[in-house]
UniProtKB/TrEMBL annotation:
This is Isobutyryl-CoA dehydrogenase, mitochondrial. GO terms for biological process: branched-chain amino acid catabolic process; lipid metabolic process. Residues 1-22 form the signal peptide. Its cofactor is FAD. The gene is acad8. Pathway: Amino-acid degradation; L-valine degradation. It comes from Sinocyclocheilus grahami (Dianchi golden-line fish). One of its GO terms (cellular component) is mitochondrion.
Length: 413
C-alpha cells in the first residue's frame, strides 16, 4: 500500500510539474490562442513545433537548467523538422520560411524550453547571415551543416569594453597575405566553446561602424580559445563564454561581404534576432498565463479557490490582454521585415522593447499568483521568469531599442 501511494504521489507530482503538456495540447481552444488568424499551413507547422516542445523539450527543461546541459541531440531532432535554418534558403538546406512563420515556430518551441529555443534562434540568425551575405562557396560550405545542426553557430559582437556601443569594438583583423590575423576578445558569447562556427565582427579599418568587417571563424583555428563558462540566472541550457583571439589566422575567403560591411551585416542579423527573441518571450508568457490560470482554479484560500478573487481575475485578464497585444506587435514587425518596409527596423525594435518587457511582467505576475510555490523549482513558472529576464538585456538592451525608435522618429522627413 505504501509503495502504491508513493507511486501515485510521484505520478501526481509529475503530472503537476509537466502540466504544460496538456496546456500545449489545448492551445487551440483558449481565448488567447496563438493560432488565431494563421493560415492552415502555418497552423500545421505551429502544431509540429508545439508537439516537439511538449514531447522533446518540456520534460527535460528543468534538468537542462539545473545540470546546465546543452541539449545537442534534442536540437538535432529539431533540425530534422526544419528548425535549424528556418529562414535560410532551401538550396543550402534551409526551410525557406518567412519571418512571421519563424516567429510562430519560436513562440511554440519556447513553451518547452525558452533557453534552448533562444539558442536555436541565435543559431538561425547566424545561418541566415551566411546565407544572405555569403557568396555561393561560403553558403555551400557552411549552411547545410548549420541547417542540419550538425554544426552549431555563435554570433560574436559584444566585447568587454563595447556592449551597447557595439560600433566601438576593438577586436582587430590585420591583413597578412591571404589571411586576417585576429586579436582581441568577445564577451558573453552564446554557445561559445561548444559551437563550431563563429560569426565575428572585427575591425579591419578605422574607428566607427564603417571600419568593421564580418569573418567566419571555425573552431579549431589556432589562436582561438574560450573563457570559463559563465554562471547565469537563466539561459542555463546554453553555455555563455568569452571568445578569445590571439594571433588567430582566418582565411580572407571567410569574410562575409566586403571590408567595412560587417556592422551593417551584424545589425541586419539582429533585426530578425529581435523578433525571434521577442517570440521566445511570447511562448514563455503564454505558458505562464495558463499555469497561473490553472493554479487559480485549484488553489483554495479563505474557503474558496483563488479564481473567485476578482482582484486575481482582473490580473489574469490583464496578463492575457497584454500577451495578445504583444503577439500582434511581433507579427506586424515580422511582416514589415519580410516585406523590407522602411519602418521595419523601428518596428523590430518596438516589438523587442514592448514584448520582452510585457512578457517578463506577465511571467513575474504568474509567479506571484502561485504564491510561495511559484518560487520553488518544482514549478515551471520560475524558470520562465529566469529565462526571459535576459531578453530585456541582449540583442540590444531595451534602452538601446528606445534610442533606435527615437532616432528614427526624430529623423524621418
Ligand atoms: C546571457 C547573455 C548572452 C549573450 N549572448 C550574446 C551573444 O551571443 N553575442 C553577443 O555579441 N553578445 C551577447 N550578449 C551580450 C549582450 O548583447 C550585451 O550584454 C548587451 O548588448 C549590453 O551590453 P553590456 O552588457 O556591455 O551593457 P552596457 O552597454 O554596459 O550597458 C549597461 C546599462 O546601461 C544602459 N545604457 C548604456 N548606454 C546607455 C545610454 N546612452 N543611454 C541609456 N542607457 C544606456 C544599458 O541599456 C544597460 O542597461 C549576451 C549577454 C548575456 C547576458
Amino acid at each position: 500500500n505504501h509503495a502504491f501511494f508513493l507511486c501515485v504521489h510521484i505520478w501526481a507530482a509529475l503530472c503537476k510539474y509537466f502540466h504544460i503538456h496538456s496546456e500545449v495540447d489545448m492551445w487551440g481552444s483558449v481565448r488567447t490562442s496563438p493560432s488565431i488568424g494563421l493560415t492552415d499551413e502555418q497552423k500545421d507547422f505551429q502544431k509540429v513545433a508545439f508537439d516537439f516542445a511538449a514531447n522533446e523539450m518540456a520534460p527535460h527543461m528543468a534538468e537542462w537548467d539545473l545540470k546546465e546541459i546543452f541539449p545537442v541531440e534534442a536540437m538535432r531532432k529539431a533540425a530534422q523538422l526544419g528548425f535549424g535554418g528556418i529562414y535560410v534558403n532551401p538550396d543550402v538546406g534551409g526551410s525557406g520560411l518567412s519571418r512571421l512563420d519563424t516567429s510562430i515556430i519560436f513562440e511554440a518551441l519556447s513553451t518547452g524550453c525558452v533557453s534552448t529555443t533562444a539558442y536555436i534562434s541565435i543559431h538561425n540568425m547566424c545561418a541566415w547571415m551566411i546565407d544572405t551575405f555569403g557568396n555561393n562557396e561560403q553558403r555551400e560550405k557552411f549552411c547545410p551543416d548549420l541547417c542540419a545542426m550538425q554544426k552549431f553557430a555563435s554570433y560574436c559582437l559584444t566585447e568587454p569594453g563595447s556592449g551597447s556601443d557595439a560600433a566601438s569594438l576593438l577586436t582587430s583583423a590585420t591583413l597578412q597575405g591571404d589571411h586576417y590575423i585576429l586579436n582581441g576578445s568577445k564577451a558573453f558569447i552564446s554557445g561559445g566553446g561548444d559551437t563550431d562556427v563563429y560569426v565575428v565582427m572585427c575591425r579591419t579599418g578605422g574607428k566607427g561602424p564603417k571600419g568593421i568587417s564580418c569573418l567566419v571563424v571555425e573552431k579549431g583555428t589556432p589562436g582561438l580559445s574560450f573563457g570559463k563558462k559563465e554562471k547565469k540566472v537563466g539561459w542555463n541550457s546554453q553555455p555563455t563564454r568569452a571568445v578569445i583571439f590571439e594571433d588567430c589566422a582566418v582565411p580572407v575567403i571567410n569574410r562575409l561581404g566586403a571590408e567595412g560591411e560587417g556592422f551593417s551585416i551584424a545589425m541586419k542579423g539582429l533585426n530578425g534576432g529581435r523578433i525571434n527573441i521577442a517570440s521566445c518571450s511570447l511562448g514563455a508568457a503564454h505558458a505562464s498565463v495558463l499555469l497561473a490560470r490553472d493554479h487559480m482554479c485549484v488553489r483554495k484560500q479563505f474557503g474558496e479557490t483563488l479564481s473567485n478573487s476578482q482582484f486575481l481575475q482582473f490580473k489574469l485578464a490583464e496578463m492575457a490582454t497584454k500577451l495578445v497585444a504583444s503577439r500582434l506587435l511581433v507579427r506586424q514587425a515580422a511582416v514589415a521585415l519580410q516585406e523590407g518596409r522602411p519602418e521595419a527596423v523601428s518596428l523590430c525594435s518596438m516589438a523587442k522593447l514592448f514584448v520582452t518587457d510585457e512578457c517578463f511582467s506577465i511571467c513575474n505576475q504568474a509567479l506571484q499568483i502561485h504564491g510561495g510555490y511559484g518560487y520553488l523549482k518544482d514549478y515551471a513558472v520560475q524558470q520562465y521568469v529566469r529565462d526571459i529576464r535576459v531578453h530585456q538585456i541582449l540583442e540590444g538592451t531595451n534602452e538601446v531599442m528606445r534610442m533606435i525608435i527615437a532616432r528614427s522618429l526624430l529623423t524621418e522627413s
